[in-house]
Amino acid sequence: MRPLPDTFSRLQRALHWGMVALIATNLALPQAMGGRGLALGVFPSEAQHIVIGCTVMALAVLRLLLRLTRGVPPEPMGAPRVFRVLARLGQWVFYALFFAMPLSGLLSYYLDDPTARLLHAEILRPLFCLLIAVHVCLALAHQFVWRTDMLGKIIRG
Fold first, then answer.
1. Cα distance from N-terminal residue to C-terminal residue, the chain
2. Entry pTM
3. Which range (34-43, 49-58, 118-127) has the least confidence?
């Protein structure tokens, strides 16, 4: 078994932050697809929403391959065990959502499938938003409560 890297690679960090921007855009501005979002006066087209979702899915494939081949830094021991277990579970739920959101959206849009629409907009979207909020809170706890510098590893490497 090869040793785990000390930090995230530049490509891993670029994929992470690029996906953050794309996902935030689609979660915050889904109005073109008939969803509710922020009233910013910005309305991406249906095509833009779909392209962003498909791009997220493609980047997730690359990110997953990097995770499996290069690895990621080990879990910091400064955090309580329960949070380390939840973080590991949360990472795999994120990967499931990286695929389930675009696929359910595509099924909803192109097949006009009401079940896929319900799954995409009313179940997966709120779950994604909740998971993101928990992820951000735990990243801040790593930095300011447990002082593990895990946040630094994804920001500066």
1. 23
2. 0.93
3. 34-43
Gap between the Cα atoms of 123 and 120, Å rounded: 6
Domain count, the chain: 1
From residue 5, alpha-carbon distances to 80, 128, 141 in Å are: 22, 28, 22
Considering the chain, what is the average pLDDT of its residues? 92
Q: What is the pLDDT of residue 38?
A: 72
| CA–centroid distance for 140 within its chain | 17
Q: Has residue 5 been placed in a domain?
A: no
Q: Which domain holds residue 144?
A: 10-155
More reliable by pLDDT, 133 or 42:
133
- Using DSSP's 3-state secondary structure scheme, residue 71 falls into coil
* Residue with token string 């794309």: 22
Confidence (pLDDT) at 143: 93
Those residues with Cβ within 8 angstroms of residue 120's Cβ, 6 or more apart along the chain or in another chain: 101, 104, 105, 107, 108
- Measuring CA to CA, which residue among 11, 13, 14, 1 is closest to residue 150? 13
Q: Is residue 2 part of a domain?
A: no
Q: Is residue 148 part of a domain?
A: yes
Which residue in 94, 112, 29, 5 sits closest to 56, CA to CA?
94
The residue behind tokens 């992820």 is 135
91 is a domain residue:
yes
